[in-house]
Design a protein that fits this description.
3 strands, hpI Integrase, Chain A, DNA polymerase, domain 1, three-stranded antiparallel β-sheet, single chain, about 325 residues, elongated
Length: about 325
């Protein structure tokens, strides 16, 4: 089974996290086999494992059984088509569990405004939190992509004579994409990067880059080891930061989830009739049939779409007035 995991990691693009999840699933499958040869198991038995056994013995809901089905199907496809150890694939007809489709909950625009004003800008942590929230709200990144950002993932380019920032987050499946940063988030990021509190922190990574968003305390890490990667936020820590500011601002708990913020971004793009292919690229949704088309969309057009439709541009943020003064054309200018 380890050979299968190695094959999926090297040839199937399986992320380290997914490899760990598959390994846990295969360990449970091995327990269920109870010493039987996995090559001798038939389709009905595999159906019994992915259905009744997982439901009754492990008490797994349909949504939790889905990765088990995916793993078992991939395992036997590998044994059949790659290793040629089976005359046919016994797992090919195993169905995925049916589950009701839930409409995603989105944070309300008014609550996004309240969230942006929640951090204390008199403290380094407040400036950092505001920059993180601005990237979440204004760029629609997943929280895993947010915490994995390094300073090297920030890029600048000249668009219509103006220097604009973009980020290159790495998210699901270790896929990287380029997202234009709205002016509000751009300015908050620059304020954070130029803060004297950040200059005092050693955030260098082994490859010579720098962790972008850093923590200022970690009780589990000795002081002499608290540098570089040890300074990076965990997804849980970033989630806790979002929730802490949201609750303090009186935002309903059901809207205080990174997915709710991401859904707000997608909703606002749709509300402003941003082209569906642009939305797919900005949101990082994989679609094999259209990937070859929308991945080549010009960054200038995407930047214009973000400026027009992103949530930060529709609410009052701590830097909106300053940004308005900076972008206002001088009298007499054309």
């Amino acid at each position: 089974m380890e050979e299968f995991l190695l094959f999926k990691a090297e040839n199937g693009g399986l992320s380290d996290r997914s490899v760990r999840a598959y390994r846990d699933i295969l360990l449970r499958f091995e327990v269920w086999l109870a010493g039987r040869d996995l090559l001798a198991v038939n389709g009905d038995e595999l159906l019994a494992f992915t259905g009744p056994y997982l439901h009754k013995a492990l008490k797994l809901a349909p949504v939790s059984r889905t990765p088990y089905v995916a793993c078992i199907r991939e395992l036997y496809r590998y044994l059949w088509s790659v290793r040629r150890l089976l005359p046919r694939d016994p797992a090919a007809s195993i169905p995925y569990p049916r589950r009701p489709r839930k409409l995603p909950a989105a944070m309300e625009l008014s609550n996004a405004e309240r969230l942006m004003w929640a951090p204390d800008f008199n403290r380094f942590e407040g400036v950092r939190d505001a920059a993180m929230l601005a990237v979440l709200i204004g760029c629609g990144v997943r929280i895993s992509g947010l915490v994995r950002l390094n300073e090297g993932h920030l890029t600048t380019q000249t668009i219509d004579g103006e220097t604009r920032m973009a980020i290159r987050p790495t998210e699901k499946g270790d896929k990287e994409r380029l997202i234009p940063v709205p002016r509000e988030a751009d300015l908050l990021l620059r304020v954070y990067l130029e803060h004297p509190g950040l200059a005092e922190i050693d955030r260098a990574t082994e490859d010579g880059d720098k962790v972008l968003f850093v923590t200022t305390r970690n009780r589990r890490c000795p002081a002499h080891e608290y540098y570089g990667e040890r300074r990076r936020f965990s997804t849980r820590g970033a989630f806790a930061m979002l929730r802490r500011h949201g609750l303090a601002a009186g935002i309903p708990a059901e809207q205080l989830h990174p997915h709710a913020v991401r859904h707000l971004y997608g909703t606002e793009l749709a509300e402003d009739a941003v082209d569906v292919l642009e939305r797919q690229q900005l949101m990082g949704h994989a679609d094999p049939k259209s990937t070859s088309i929308y991945t080549h969309l010009a960054i200038r057009k995407l930047t214009g779409s973000v400026d027009k439709a992103n949530p930060l541009g529709k609410i009052a943020t701590p830097v909106s007035q300053l940004l308005g003064e900076m972008t206002r054309k001088p009298t007499g200018a054309r």
